[in-house]
Fold:
Amino acid sequence: MSTFGFIEYNDANPQVKAVYDDIMATRKTDYINNFWKAIAHDPALLKRTWESLKAIMAPGALDPLTKELIYIAVSVTNNCGYCIASHTASAFAKGMTAAMFQELQAVIGMANETNKLVTGYQVAIDSRFQPPLELPK
Amino acid sequence: MSTFGFIEYNDANPQVKAVYDDIMATRKTDYINNFWKAIAHDPALLKRTWESLKAIMAPGALDPLTKELIYIAVSVTNNCGYCIASHTASAFAKGMTAAMFQELQAVIGMANETNKLVTGYQVAIDSRFQPPLELPK
Amino acid sequence: MSTFGFIEYNDANPQVKAVYDDIMATRKTDYINNFWKAIAHDPALLKRTWESLKAIMAPGALDPLTKELIYIAVSVTNNCGYCIASHTASAFAKGMTAAMFQELQAVIGMANETNKLVTGYQVAIDSRFQPPLELPK
Amino acid sequence: MSTFGFIEYNDANPQVKAVYDDIMATRKTDYINNFWKAIAHDPALLKRTWESLKAIMAPGALDPLTKELIYIAVSVTNNCGYCIASHTASAFAKGMTAAMFQELQAVIGMANETNKLVTGYQVAIDSRFQPPLELPK
Amino acid sequence: MSTFGFIEYNDANPQVKAVYDDIMATRKTDYINNFWKAIAHDPALLKRTWESLKAIMAPGALDPLTKELIYIAVSVTNNCGYCIASHTASAFAKGMTAAMFQELQAVIGMANETNKLVTGYQVAIDSRFQPPLELPK
Amino acid sequence: MSTFGFIEYNDANPQVKAVYDDIMATRKTDYINNFWKAIAHDPALLKRTWESLKAIMAPGALDPLTKELIYIAVSVTNNCGYCIASHTASAFAKGMTAAMFQELQAVIGMANETNKLVTGYQVAIDSRFQPPLELPK
Structure:
């Protein structure tokens, strides 16, 4: 369910259908997940979000699986249940192994712990870590 | 600065010195950063945190640089200034390129945006994403 | 459900009933929502929270609907499911249109994204944005 | 300061300059604030972020000042110092009065408080608030 | 500094002065800290916030020092630098020892870590922990 | 449920069984809650997390119940439903009364509110609260 329910493919207007088609073609699937069907009530948001996501998650200096791991790290830290469920499934589909999942969760847990120790002990930034950093070539 | 100031190597007790020595040996550096010097007021915490971090950040199913990227993703989402500064510097030292940094930030930003769209539109989890997932071999 | 269950009107003590009566009178409804019935186990908290909310959400320099939009923005950012559901319903009751809902969610998503880009790129505050600002008349 | 420092107009490549020009033209100013100069190291991110922001913050079903208030509500909840400073200044420039600022902060504070009371008391969503809601015309 | 600067005692109107007087009398001090001087631009907010805080932080079923520890736990988790600094100082003034501070920080760190492990592993609530709980006498 | 389901005692390998045995012996119970059964897929994480938790939550300068209250404060602020449910049940088992629960929630709510007022009003830290603080004996 979602605030206004889901817009299914057959009920979608042409602008929404075009995005759905591109999602399915890009992902080589015939499945549109709930997120897209929920925000399709705002076709401009649907289009902008999909196009940004498609560009950002494409292979680049980081591979798509690494990007999924980062997505999960953000989603767990934000406690977004839907996002965790969907990106965990997606990461497995892209080749995440059980061992990778476990190390990912351990790093997320550890980072959240040390983030708070740093904060609680009010630790000032070492001068050598202060930006600007020299841009690596 | 930090709540109780920093404990420098020469002022440290043997238990703290042993951790400092291990940090420097493991990281092949003679520098102890502020975080450790701030929490050294609690030697048990210092030891437990360092040993957990050392185990978790070691090479495994994920390589150390990927783990740094995940650490940064958590730290940015938590808005922990110290953690962002130190792990960004550390990631560059481990081989992160400018292009990798930029893709990392783009994914973090996008994930934070879609996390909130999912939440605001109250999107229910697709049944196919519901755990338990089959454990990949 | 809630930690201690709900206190219904007929089971409430006079102090709680007085708050329930004021909620119904102020909101022109005969419905008390779960939040109030859950915190009624602490009558002092119930009274203080209701009186603060009533004062803060009243028409003023900002109209009540704008205040609901702000409430939703906070609740989505905090990922508070109950709060999102109840304030979204409430905003629609106060005149929010579907177009307003959609723009609200787009702004919330965008703000969450740029908050993290600013944080991840460690951007210092422009001197012209530094407080104190001159107080507008 | 920022991770890689700021790219000033005169040092910018044509793609970045085009975005800077559009920012200044749209906002009727000759000032480019630090955020844009920090992310200009990634011209694709700069362009996508600016174009999304420009579309989202334009007048629509919600007026630009209301959108700034929502932006501030998110930024305060996320504790993003830069974002608070820049959007507070921006909101005053768009006509926010001191009284509006004060009501905004009071609502943000109250929403954060009740978000946590709801959460701590584990309050279930009233069935009447459960989505889907009927879409208002 | 703060958005509109600080209102000092001698510049305060009678409503603000009355709150300042009560703060100093209640806390047995002649010092008004920056928070109050910043929100004094909104005398109604100042009064409501102080009166709520005074009631909530008073001795009750929990002693005032325990309440400060809880305040710090929230403030660290929210990454509120001002709040951490002021409540840490306040807790020491109320009798927190170094050992208590250290255990507090260790618990905060651990709780943040396990919160995220629970979330990342998508753990469902045990039926025995499901509310409603029986109210202890 | 959880990402990979739960590992029950009889299906556990010896390393996991050893941790389960220690949990039951330490807590004087024959019940292993879902969290441990979910992370048991990573026996090293299970062991490290349990041993850290056992050390941190043991009686010390702070008593175990106070530590549970702090755990709840973090969990509510992070909006971790599982953690709130399990630690609230646990705190009641350790002697938390209804009055203590209510004061705890009131402090959590208040702290979250004032955290955001401080942040929204951009209040600078009083020089007397700046670390380092003198370490109490």
User: Anything to note?
Assistant: The two ends of chain F are 48 Å apart (CA to CA).
